[in-house]
Amino acid sequence: MVRAGIVGGTGYTGVELLRILVLHPQVEVSVVTSRADAGSRVDQLYPSLRGYCDLQFSPPELKYLQGCDVVFFATPNGTAMLMAEALLALGVKVIDLSADFRIKDPAEWEKWYGMQHASPGLIDEAVYGLPELNRELIKQARLIACPGCYPTAVQLGFLPLLEAGMVDTNGLVADVKSGVSGAGRKAEIASLMSEAGESFKAYAVAGHRHLPEIKQGLARVAGDEVGLTFVPHLTPMIRGIHATLYARLNSRGKDLQALFEQRYREQRFVDVLPAGSHADTRNVRGSNRCQIAVHQPQGGDTVVVLSVIDNLVKGASGQAVQNMNLMFGLAEAAGLETVALYP
Hints:
With 343 residues, the chain is an alpha/beta fold. The chain has two domains: 2-125, NAD(P)-binding Rossmann-like Domain (Rossmann fold); 149-311, 2-Layer Sandwich (Dihydrodipicolinate Reductase, domain 2), CATH 3.30.360.10. Helices cover 29% and strands 20% of the residues. It has eleven helices and 13 strands. β3 (70-73), α4 and β4 (93-96) form a beta-alpha-beta unit. The longest helix has 15 residues, at 149-163.
């Protein structure tokens, strides 16, 4: 059994990790931390876990985590980088769901996240945890930087086109919508359903902190810098990411449907929909799947890719468990074989 700890067990990604891990056949959740709720029972805060988790929240301290095989950080940015080095020194593997180790240039990270990086020496070691791109590296890793939700949907949508060199990489556009849970479990007026409900808006048009992460990933695949316009939107739903991606084709006549189907044929958690389909967030809700539909409107030189995920599962906690499975030599889909909720 893999002994797992979760730092930050009271947020949406933390409880989503618990939902998945308590049913994982080869994992024992041994520690869940919360500074504010230390000493309280986990199932008191989350009654949905009654009968599945009888732990009490522990303080987020090394002495409670050192007996784990792996520790997940479901914490705000700036927390994992303070504890990762000490855990790694004890032989504990680390999977960080925040952005602390995603961006390879420390100065770029500090620019976008507004703080000094506490562990720049670990950035190069951290493996970017997108299994569809880095599966073999993940298997050997001891520190994983789990991708963000927007970057997951966008990169999976653009990946086949960039690998095949089929599009102009200077004019990529990502028009992406997120449910309110993407803002995290905190008291913030803009993410209250009474504020977000019956409304729809773009935000961070001048620059979102996921932009450098997405560009870094796409540039690696393309072999050069990419020009990307990324505009996020807030939609009045709880879960889901819908990415509508645009690119200019270098030439017409290529079978885009076949390209995507071939690229993801062996990828358990990427589902390329039949030609003419329209991806819908409700069809991935609660699952670790990314569903993709590819279009070439009017047979022209623009390709439109629709990519949908559940931001809390494939966009965060499910993908983190997928990484853990690979790191420990388990079946990649272990604990993740869940059909999406419908309706």
